[in-house]
């Protein structure tokens, strides 16, 4: 009988394999081409194969190496992270980029018991700067910063 010694990595490996199968199936609907003349499906299929291999490695290792037990599912954190993503998508048109980042990161922070007000404010400031640097300055996204 097979004994799962590391349940977290076992589930993660199965998720990797599942996602890779979905990605690979979708990539097969596009023309693949050849290695010298790659089609639009070549790169996604390559990523799917790599992800599947990584998933298999993680799954097999979970059967060989002892790991941590699964903790209980944090429903509050899950719901707040999903709400933060939705809130960002809705708020970016009304509030602008920077207030939307502040708002969505603030919602995410409410999902954790580990943050104190000073560390939460520092994280928000850091993420606002990083998001601005990457998306506005670096990539030049055409969104308004404020209202």
Word description of this protein:
It is a single chain. With 147 residues, the protein is mainly α. The protein has 2 domains: 7-64; 75-138, no CATH class. The chain is built from 5 helices and no strands. The protein has helices spanning 7-27, 42-64, 75-95, 97-110, 117-138. The chain starts with 6 loop residues before the first helix and ends in a 9-residue tail after the last helix. The model has no long low-confidence stretch (mean pLDDT 90).
Number of strands: 0
User: Per the principal axes of the C-alpha atoms, what is the gross shape?
Assistant: flat
SSE succession: HHHHH
Distance between the termini: 61 Å
Radius of gyration: 21 Å
User: Roughly what is the average pLDDT, rounded to an integer?
Assistant: 90
This entry's quaternary arrangement is single chain
The proportion of residues in beta strands is under 5%
Question: Any idea how many domains?
Answer: 2
SS content category: mainly alpha
Helix content: 55-70%
Report low-confidence residues grouped into runs of 5 or more: none
Largest sheet, if any?
none
Discrete helix count: 5
